[in-house]
Known about the structure:
The protein is an all-alpha fold and 89 residues long. Helices cover 73% and strands 0% of the residues. The protein has a domain at 39-89. The radius of gyration is 15 Å and the shape is globular. The two termini are 19 Å apart.
Amino acid sequence: MLPCLFKMLFHKECPGCGLQRSVLALLKGDLGGSLHLYWATIPILLLFTFLLLHLRFRFSFGAKVLVWLYCFNGILIMCQFFYKLTHQL
């Protein structure tokens, strides 16, 4: 696992902390554990999958969908970050 520089400097988890562990849990087939570790893992994977498909097939609606997916993922990531800050996980 890559160490988190933010966590080493400030002793608090950054908005991305938990993503590596969540992806590993997902690869092991532990969906519940993956969602518990990082809520936005599956939406981020869906975003990148759609992005690759859009780059390959040039969907006419692709840019709008990507903007909405980016916003949704950003909101999820910030909600989890503030949840971790307030609950001292």
